[in-house]
Amino acid sequence: MLEVVILTVQIALLATAINFPVSLIIANYQDKLPSKFKFILDVFISLPLALPPVVTGYFLLVIFSPNGILGNLFFEIFGFDIVFTWFAAALASALVSFPLMVRPMMLSFSNIDSNLINAARSLGANKFQSFYKIKLNLALPGILAGVILGFTRSLGEFGATIMVAGNIPGKTQTLPLAIYTSVQVGDDSQVYLLVGLSIGLALMSLSVYNLILYRYKNSNKDI
Amino acid sequence: MHSFKIKITKKIEPFLLNVFIESNANLLGLYGVSGSGKTTILNCMSGFDEPDDGKIEIDNHIFFDHANNINTSIEKRRLGYVSQFSTLFPNMSVAKNISFGFDHTPKNERIYSPNEIISFFGISHLTDRTIYKLSGGERQLVALARAIVSSPKGLLLDEPLSSLDSKSKIGLIRKLKSVNRELNIPMVYVSHSASEIMALCDQVSIVSNGTVINSGNPSIIFNHDDLNSIEFENFFECEVIDSSNLRLAHQNVLIANKHFDGQSHIMISINSSDIILSNHHPVGISAQNIFLGHVIDYIVSGNNVLVLSDVGEKIWSKITLDSFKRLKLSKSTEVYLIIKSSNINFQN
């Protein structure tokens, strides 16, 4: 049981770690893109939301299978197959949860008045200083929202994961997959326990988010 | 006196911005209607925009020179920028906003400390506040203080008064005048208000459709198109005598009883439409301020005439063409200016 929880959290954390820098870069540079490219980017970013996760998983399976373009490359570099590993589950979770992480960040960054950044630079701050002292700080609620939404979505990922990582106990079986298996075999007490754990993990993530947001708002109120 | 050499060519829709300004001024004004290109000039000076060609130089500091491939980065130009929109950082207190510029100024270039400037602007009571708890006028004062604490090589002011009420406007004009006079910082002031330009600037360039159509002393350069359409406001700095008397250029100004908190000088404004002209000394009227002066210029436009009189200070009055003819006014004519105490506006 504990093994399932640890694996689920481990996969969700890796998926979040993969998505975070990519989301931050896209959110920060979105306004510098020509509007046509921004439109195309928006469509591609949202695609995993519109597609059934099973379809997303199928694409990953094709690409990362030993004969797939990236699977082959991965084998050449690291010497093992990525499919049906916990890393594949993390990739599937990352792809499915990506829109949920990047969109709040994009919204948050696009709401920052560019005059504030110009003002910071006219006061002597260089590009990096104005980014982390002003932009990053002002976008923090959106960044947090993106990270927590992405993380919680990763905790619950099922369709894409089962396609590309399978449902191997102790190796790729996450909480949702374990619930599915327990329902299939009719083990009700196991189902209740797993569902309870799932709800507990989601509540814990959202509480952490609300706590950080509350502290952030309060610290701004006190200054 | 500071030297400004601004030569900018830049393609902006719907015209080509092509300006050349060479001026020796304490405070240089850029005047023009919205969309004339004046803000783009300021953006090119600050480094927010890059000109296609040209050269930008203030007091021998070259910030941009296309021919010699010089384009100093925004942070190295050290040109303080205050716009009509609040650019105070919402994630910082007033004190932190003000020290931001100081913290990012190289130690050997620091001239003013945050405390000195906070005291100069008289805003120590605001320092612990968030920017959400400031009025529009206070925000602009803090933005100005923040820009000055960064020890700038110049100040670029993009219509900083346009969103303020008249009382805050009068207060900020006074502060801008004292910054210019006491701190000796070169300043460029952009506005579409002839009143503000005349109150603040000793030189002005009029920008229209991306080119400079006229430059010179504001009181000479403005024509009837610039002045007729507006409610022209006269701004003056007066010496405080007591709670009901001010001194303006050797004239005593009677005001409604007001407490000045130990201030020795105060900024006032009088709208040109609130001044009555007479060619005889009026008797038996309620208005308490009657100043004798003479007409030095007038601008006729439509049914109105803006009359510039000298009573020790130059004052614009707006009267109808009928009244102007009836009073038989012309240049050098003696004239009495009548102003009700209640029509004298004060800073906050």
Question: Which SSEs are present, and which pair or pack?
Answer:
The complex is a heterodimer of chains A (223) and B (348).
Chain A (H helix, E strand, L loop, with lengths): L1 H28 L5 H16 L2 H12 L4 H10 L7 H25 L3 H9 L4 H12 L1 H16 L3 H6 L10 H11 L2 H35 L1
Helix pairs in contact in A: 1-5, 1-8, 2-5, 3-5, 5-8, 6-7, 8-11, 10-11
Chain B lengths: L1 E11 L2 E11 L1 E5 L6 H9 L6 E6 L2 E5 L4 E2 L2 H4 L1 E5 L10 H10 L10 H8 L14 H14 L4 E5 L7 H18 L3 E5 L2 H7 L2 E6 L2 E6 L1 H4 L2 H5 L4 E10 L2 E4 L2 E4 L10 E7 L3 E4 L10 E13 L2 E7 L3 E7 H6 L7 E6 L5 E2 L2
Parallel strand pairs in B: 3-9, 3-10, 7-8, 8-9
Antiparallel strand pairs in B: 1-2, 1-4, 4-5, 5-6, 10-11, 12-13, 12-15, 13-14, 15-21, 16-20, 17-18, 17-20, 18-19
Helix pairs in contact in B: 3-5, 4-5, 5-6
CATH architecture of the largest domain in chain B: 3-Layer(aba) Sandwich
Calculate Rg of chain B over CA atoms: 21 Å
As for the number of domains of chain A, it is 1
What is the subunit organization of this protein? Answer: heterodimer
> Globular, elongated, flat, extended or rod-shaped: what is the shape of chain B?
globular
**Order of helix and strand elements from N to C terminus of chain A:** HHHHHHHHHHH
CATH architecture of chain A: Orthogonal Bundle
Instruction: Spell out the CATH superfamily of chain A.
Output: MetI-like
Q: Give the largest interface pair and sizes.
A: A-B, 20 and 29 residues
The overall number of domains of chain B is 2
In terms of DSSP E residues, the strand content of chain A is: under 5%
Largest sheet of chain B: 6 strands, mixed
Q: Give the tally of β-strands of chain A.
A: 0
The CATH homologous superfamily of the largest domain in chain B corresponds to P-loop containing nucleotide triphosphate hydrolases
Shape of chain A: globular
CATH fold naming of the largest domain in chain B: Rossmann fold
Derived from helix and strand composition plus strand pairing, the structural class of chain A reads: mainly alpha
CATH topology of chain A: MetI-like fold
Q: Strands across the major sheet of chain B, in which order? A: 7-8-9-3-10-11
Q: Treating each run of at least 4 consecutive H or I residues as one helix, how many helices of chain A?
A: 11
